Amino acid sequence: MPARSYHEDLWSDVPPEGEPPQFASRLAFLRGHVVAGARVLDVGCGEGRFASALAAAGAQVTGIDVASEPLRRAAERDPSLELRLVEEAALAQGLLGVLFLLDGGAQSPAVRARG
Question: Which CATH fold topology does 3-13+23-113 show?
């Protein structure tokens, strides 16, 4: 099954407006590392909850995902978000100030800030 179909099928079973696991603590962690004006790429942004919160705090956020359904939900919830559907995650080095990845297994965030 192609990756796009797999992820679209997964999202068809996810109820809308669900809160990501440990949302408050993960967002607090991110806010401690992302300053206003930072450029952030939210890889696998889903419904855009983290992207939206960071944008509200002054970051310049782009959310990307491999499935269209979560991006549709994110755009519906927050039309101001910059969202992109991608075939596969390919990042150009040096274009971002902050990149955060949330490990889908352990749900532990990792933040890399370029100094």
Answer: Rossmann fold (3.40.50)
